[in-house]
Amino acid sequence: MAKKWVYFFGDGKAEGNAKLVNLLGGKGANLHEMTNLGIPVPPGFTITTEACRYFYENDGKIPPELEPQVREAMSRIESLMGRKFGDPNNPLLVSVRSGAPVSMPGMMDTILNLGLNDESVEGLSKLTNNPRFAYDCYRRLVSMYGNVVMGIPHEEFEKLIEQKKHEKGVTQDIELTAEDWRDLVGKFKQLIRDRTGKEFPQDPWEQLWGAIKAVFKSWNNRRAIEYRKIHGIPEDLYTAANVQTMVFGNLGEDSATGVAFTRNPATGDKTFYGEYLRNAQGEDVVAGIRTPEPIDKLKEEMPTIYEELMKIRDLLEHHYKDIQDIEFTIERGKLYMLQTRRGKRTALANVKIAVDMVKERLIDEKEAIRRVTPEDIEQLMHPVIDPNVKAEPIAKGLPASPGAATGKVVFTSEEAAEWADRGDPVILVRLETSPEDIVGMKKAEGILTQRGGMTSHAAVVARGMGKPCVVGCENININYDKKEFVTSTGMTVREGDVITIDGATGNVYVGDLPKVRLATVPEFQEILRYADKIRRLGVRTNADTPEQAKVAREFGAEGIGLCRTEHMFFAEDRIKAMREMIIAETPEDRKKALAKLLPMQKEDFKQILDVMDGLPVIIRTLDPPLHEFLPKEQEQIEELAKELGIDPDVLQKKVESLAEFNPMLGHRGCRLGITYPEITEMQARAIFEAACELKKEGKNPIPEIMIPLVADAKEFKHQREVVDRVAKEVMEQYGVEIEYKVGTMIELPRAALTSDEIAKYAEFFSFGTNDLTQTTFGFSRDDVAKFLNLYIEKGILPYDPFQSLDVVGVGELVRIGTERGKKVRPDLEVGICGEHGGEPRSIAFCHKVGLDYVSCSPYRVPVARLAAAKAVVEEESKSDIH
Amino acid sequence: MAKKWVYFFGDGKAEGNAKLVNLLGGKGANLHEMTNLGIPVPPGFTITTEACRYFYENDGKIPPELEPQVREAMSRIESLMGRKFGDPNNPLLVSVRSGAPVSMPGMMDTILNLGLNDESVEGLSKLTNNPRFAYDCYRRLVSMYGNVVMGIPHEEFEKLIEQKKHEKGVTQDIELTAEDWRDLVGKFKQLIRDRTGKEFPQDPWEQLWGAIKAVFKSWNNRRAIEYRKIHGIPEDLYTAANVQTMVFGNLGEDSATGVAFTRNPATGDKTFYGEYLRNAQGEDVVAGIRTPEPIDKLKEEMPTIYEELMKIRDLLEHHYKDIQDIEFTIERGKLYMLQTRRGKRTALANVKIAVDMVKERLIDEKEAIRRVTPEDIEQLMHPVIDPNVKAEPIAKGLPASPGAATGKVVFTSEEAAEWADRGDPVILVRLETSPEDIVGMKKAEGILTQRGGMTSHAAVVARGMGKPCVVGCENININYDKKEFVTSTGMTVREGDVITIDGATGNVYVGDLPKVRLATVPEFQEILRYADKIRRLGVRTNADTPEQAKVAREFGAEGIGLCRTEHMFFAEDRIKAMREMIIAETPEDRKKALAKLLPMQKEDFKQILDVMDGLPVIIRTLDPPLHEFLPKEQEQIEELAKELGIDPDVLQKKVESLAEFNPMLGHRGCRLGITYPEITEMQARAIFEAACELKKEGKNPIPEIMIPLVADAKEFKHQREVVDRVAKEVMEQYGVEIEYKVGTMIELPRAALTSDEIAKYAEFFSFGTNDLTQTTFGFSRDDVAKFLNLYIEKGILPYDPFQSLDVVGVGELVRIGTERGKKVRPDLEVGICGEHGGEPRSIAFCHKVGLDYVSCSPYRVPVARLAAAKAVVEEESKSDIH
Known about the structure:
Two copies of one chain form a homodimer.
Chain A: E1 6-10, E2 13-14, H1 21-36, E3 44-47, H2 49-57, H3 66-81, E4 94-99, E5 110-114, H4 120-128, H5 131-148, H6 154-168, H7 178-196, H8 204-218, H9 222-231, E6 240-245, E7 256-261, E8 273-278, H10 282-286, E9 293-294, H11 296-301, H12 303-320, E10 324-331, E11 334-342, H13 347-359, H14 365-371, H15 374-380, E12 383-385, E13 395-396, E14 398-401, E15 404-410, H16 413-421, E16 426-430, H17 438-443, E17 446-449, H18 457-465, E18 469-471, E19 476-479, E20 484-487, E21 492-494, E22 498-502, E23 507-510, E24 515-517, H19 522-534, E25 538-542, H20 546-554, E26 560-564, H21 572-583, H22 587-611, E27 616-620, H23 634-644, H24 648-658, H25 670-675, H26 677-696, E28 702-707, H27 713-734, E29 741-746, H28 749-753, H29 755-758, E30 764-767, H30 769-777, H31 785-793, H32 810-824, E31 829-832, H33 840-848, E32 853-856, H34 861-881
Parallel strand pairs in A: 15-16, 16-17, 17-18, 25-26, 25-32, 26-27, 27-28, 28-29, 29-30, 30-31, 31-32
Antiparallel strand pairs in A: 1-2, 1-3, 3-6, 4-5, 4-6, 7-8, 7-10, 8-9, 10-11, 12-24, 13-23, 14-18, 15-22, 19-20, 20-21, 22-23
């Protein structure tokens, strides 16, 4: 039997369904599914992604069995519709639309009104009794075909229309007559002839195959490839082609076309949300050329249709259990659904919808966790303009994608990329955006467009990227040539001027407005409550100051996983004592300098332990090489020598003696504490004195002392002895008992490999995956830029291992370290405190290898809570499969 | 039953034997063994090391059961000897000698002639009819006791003797009369009284216990502790104390005392080798105070005794199957053996004896391998004076320990250490050495003494250390005060003057004489032949030049394990092209510069491949960061810019852009080859063109290309593709086929951990354990000195992991890397090319984890061959136990 390349749908029955998304593409699969649900869908058929694959694997040939299958499907449509493809009197018109397994909105091509030619346009005119409509359709076909199949820029057709409008002294397409359009069709055909030396094909079948092949080809157009690269979509999915009966929203005032979301995709509110245009074809809405009516108005204008639409909305949401993005057309009072798909939405909406649907019992909490992404959480923590700031907006548009962003104004995608690459944050300001602008949008802090609605290209793409975006800001007037825009109040904003946009309100401001983070909507807290119920991993924070600790605790941190102490020494009032300590020649002098630091350190620790009262606080002893605390330039050295009252030559020699070839692998971490035990001693004393004083105040401090850069168990043992001795002394002195632990960073391969030995002495491990990545790869983080980008470009590394944990190498050491450590000490507390601790993919790995907690920067704590829950849910999904 | 603290020997029967060495000490165990063999040994008993341990663990108390056991043993001696301990008329005299389980010659104390006092000295005088002898014995007891037990420096007693000789106008001890000695005894006792306020004890039992305790205490004297530290002897072995009937070599001309080796300990020749002194006590020989007669003379003087001694020599060698170091005393015509022990010998002797004993069927080849140490092999490769050099010695002494050494003359141990520590090689010149000189001897290049024989302290210790040593060089005259020595020809050599000594001939020269390495004795080759039969590990060499390769091949290298290519670029005629390559801004310019390097590289490779004809040659592609090839100082940069004809600012910027924070972890290794594939391409081309040309000349080149610093399989794959492509091109061009492999260094933890992935593409691995140690520990080799010594001192690390492979950490990665690699590719060739490849302990580990070969510097190749065989033998010994 011949391979099935074509799947038919129509008249309430479809050969495919929503599960066949890989074969039929997203759009196709859902057309089949809707048909099966009894929803009115114009009949048609889907040519599979397999056919497209065949096309690419066979030098642009189509499978031989495809043609007869297409002809057969076409005659099924013909008999259902009672029209005939290419019939001059009663022509069946079809569209050909691309539709890949993964949504790539606007990336690939579509051609409408196929089947029209010089003869059948007259037939259509008679049939509809609407010559203007017929020639409007025909001109659309000719220009789309001319563009998509024959390669003439869209703008050249637009220019001819603009000329005609100019001639006629009108501004709107709708003001052009049938005659005007007929005349334009002639001009379009002439344009095609002039540019290509070929005729616009009059044979409908030639049109159809030209369109199908063009759709296949569009899989590999530049912007599609770009889009797949940005979104990590595999190259070998391919697109399906959907051939479907045309229905017309432009057949008069009883016709319309619209797009809608079953809920508000910006806020998540459970309100039907959409726009429509009367007497228009679908792309008029999407392109943002005319500003459409809100969907509510349809209730007044076509109440029956509105009701039918509301029923379909409910049906789709209950069926798909998610917000749907639909397209519909009303042809002479009859409703047709042309598309349904998972609605793209803002992070806020995604969270709200997930929580609402749990309450509506459409989904359970785990499904909610599955749907909310770490990026959603991150976005909700993105800054918004400080509500306390009073500022007058200079303009207001539609709030297309929430979040506040500030940057310098640029007017092209290229400039956006260029400025951003050299470190200037930019706001990309465009009349409207098109797929060509993707790169610039990606690089911009935010996007502002003069035209277009909430479902325009700019709005949809910006929401997908999580970028603040304001669209349809009609009270600005952009002049690309002058590189400026003028507001309705006459204010001129030029390229390079700083503006702030608020994607949640649509407001545009001049200057850089102060911002705050919100994340206070109840659903945000609710989804994190679900996460907390589900996750196994604990979440701590990396915090060096009481302020950071406070923020993190508010965000749900369950302790401090890493409190670095060295930052405390850089403060102006401390660096001098620190330097005295470093240049000390004897332990006595060193102790004298350290004694000056002790009360300051103690105060630091006291505040942090107080903020984290009742939660564990891991404090790491001094880590960086001492030369980091000394100046390097001759002049500064002399100045410092004067300040310290010592010979500059002596200081110079000290600086030189401390210099290192590879500081990363140098005299730092516990190596310092072993060389100068008095440093560890001072720090331990500061910690325990702080803890004892808090305890006496009735607080419950839980300090955990962490020894950095341990390579061998004996190093740890040495430092632990110092800490334990001081702890005992201080506790006796204060007469209180402090619950404490002593543990180590596992940040060297040798520590991971010999963790069984280290675990004999250490009560906890914290994987310092920043340094562990450096040593495991032999990459200096400070130098890696010289080749890392090239590595990622060439596919040698899949991603930057300093951002996302390298599972196979560094992760293997984490696995080995954890396994060997826990074998010796089953209650060993194991966490991660590298920057990977806040990165979702890395968190999933930490869950998998059995870590006890992750620790991350305060603002990543909610992300980590969610990611930890997602790890559980994903693990369960996987084990379901097996 | 009471614990047995005392083991008796005498009259052909002993309670112990040679196996009880831990309990009885080496000396004791062998006295028991000899007694059981029927060899004439003066009766006595051994107090066990357990008693000494008890002594240390109980604040200097002796076990309560010890005293009765000693008394009982003493009465057994008394009845055997027919004398009584403390009897004024017929006194039994005994010695108390230390004897630890491990030989520590001269480190601990001995007291002779115990049992004498003011009364019994008269008895002895009458009994022997030799008042001079009796008082000589007594004065020895009093001074030894005064020194060892009562703590008065030996020199103070010596000074009194010198005074007496001066008074009497004589120079030799032997010229002093009974009266003189009696007088001196009085003076000695007065000295003791003056210094300690105590009397020399007249009670023989008090003497005995004082002596026993002093022997126990001597285990922990400063020089013994020092010795154990140097030789890695555990602190908890403790010493036994041997109490033994005195026999006297100083009872007249029919008496003598001597020491001998059963073979020549310097050359290994199978000739009886020793010295004796007539009418002397043992320590007179060892101390080197009088120059003794060669043992051959005994054949003439006491032929019967000599024959008896020869029989004992054979008996001992057949019994112990090794060269023995014996002490004997002839008392009035009767031979007594006082000690036998494994003879210390030179490396040359050790090798020769091992091979000879295989031929004599005393031992098998594996035992020979077990006995020869890597240090022996290394020493035989030590330089000797170039035989072609004609030079007149300024003096000649006894050839005590072979090898030639050059250094500046110093006269004290302290100065030797001081000068050596600041980098000045020294020759330590002493009248004679004593245990106090150990540290200085260790630091010196060689030792020269004016006095003493082949078994003097200097000779024995120097042989043990493998230091060149000339002793008994009586034609020099040392003046410590003036810091000079004068030769018999009147030449004055002062402190700091450079001399060369030849420990194989005894010659002393002025100046630094050119040296060569020998290692050509047939036994050296023979032992390595045994090794080759036994070892499983292959041995290759690290060689960058044809000269090195040639040396290595002569030493038995079975290929090149690492040929670094970067050294080739530093040559003056190449560095310019190299720099042009580095500053090139485009691949074209880079290729142009590389084209200049190509013919030079090709010539390098051709020569090396030619030398190693038929053996594999692993060539590593460029490894160091490019900035290593550029100057760093402003001035040099300007100069270079002029030379290259470019703007100095441009060059300065290039230098800056290449600078790195942590070069060790920077842009180097395959990262360069991936960034600039044209470098790898040029190198591959040079290799294959060289190989093809040799092949056409009928040679058999086997190049193996090694990609450095791989962290991920994809890096390797990328570089391998370049190499394979070039190989194909060149081979087609020349029309010949070259057998080649492409493999990688495993020198990063990630490479070891993901070696299964890498082995999919790589045909061989070579562990670069230098870099692997750096990254596994996070130690920068260039910076580690800041704390490594402290770490070793504090026992945090047992040794320098850059010298001996860190088995638990770095070794674990070697194990994992090998295991995972071979799992994927069972015929994967795995070696090691770090400096550990020539270090015996590391080689044993490589054998254990199943590596295929080790690669080391040319002069370490024989060491590695032996060490590889020893690994097999040791493994078998271990599996014998289980």
